Amino acid sequence: MPDLDRRRERAARVLGLDPAALPSEAAALARLAELSRGPVAATCLVVGYDGEPLDPLFEDDRS
What is the pLDDT of residues 19-60, one digit of tens each? Predict the structure, then answer.
């Protein structure tokens, strides 16, 4: 993939990570899970063909 570095840096910025000091895969996934449970989650619902939101990708274990 010739533009892998550009894509990786863009994904890091979207997750709020420093592209110059990318963390481990586990840390990046933890950040993704954190964002999926926060206020961003409400604005990023994935809607199915029937018009209903799909189940969240990550469980909310804060309860």
Answer: 788 778 888 888 877 877 777 666 667 788 898 888 766 565
Nearest by Cα to 37 from 16, 11, 14, 63: 63
Q: What is the pLDDT of residue 19?
A: 78
| Distance from the first to the final alpha carbon of the chain | 41
pLDDT for 57? 65
**Which DSSP string do the residues of 27-55 spell out, in sequence order?**
HHHHHHHHHHHSHHHHHS--B-TTSSBPP
Spatial neighbors of 23 by CB under 8 A, at least 6 apart, are 17, 31
CA-based nearest residue to 33, from 62, 13, 5: 62
